Amino acid sequence: MEKIAIMKSSNEKSKSNNKENIESKVEKIRVLHVDDEEGFLELTKIYLEKISDQKLHVDSISSSEQVVDYLKDHEYDVLVSDYQMPGLDGLELLKKLRNQDNDIPFIIFTGKGREEIAIQALNLGADSYVKKGVDSRSLYTELAHIIERLVKEKNLERKLYESQQSIKNAKKKIFILSLLQFVKLIN
User: Is 156 domain-assigned?
Assistant: First the structure.
């Protein structure tokens, strides 16, 4: 069985104590990036962390076949996956995760720009599809924005669900009124 190597950027620099204290109070978005090209994994990590002003923390894994088991022991906010990889391709990985009721936001990030791949990915439950390109700065800026948007949406969905459950399970009656004083919800 092949070992999973989480790649850490070779150019990560230590930060001043003040900056570390400020950053530790800001929740970082944890990204798992899956691609069989290790050089590309390193490049993506560097760009995403730099473009996001360190709001994104990127771990990389080069074996798509190991991701499902790896996610059982590690928590991430979003998964970014290449499409064409040995073993499981990105769509097969997505399908496997969704079949196990794993709803992690999933982005297909690939150089294979065929429209049918994008449609198939979205139909299988991918949250977004980004085509790798030549202009690295705009590509990674777009990817960082998509990651942040998907994580915000997922967090809002969770908060809404928790609020709905709190109202549903409340021991006392709760009425929610609209601005015109119409009853909108009674638990």
Answer: yes
Q: What is the pLDDT of residues 12-28, one digit of tens each?
A: 444 444 545 544 456 89
Assign residue 35 the CATH number of its domain: 3.40.50.2300
Other C-beta atoms closer than 10 Å to the C-beta of 20 total 10
Residue 169 lies in a domain: yes
How many domains are contained in the chain? 1
Residue 63 has a CB neighbour count (10 Å cut-off) of 18
Tell me which residue of 66, 124, 154 sits closest to 108, measured CA to CA.
Answer: 124
The helix (run of H) or strand (run of E) holding residue 129 is strand 128-131
Rounded distance between C-alpha atoms, residue 58 and residue 52, angstroms: 11
pTM of this prediction? 0.77
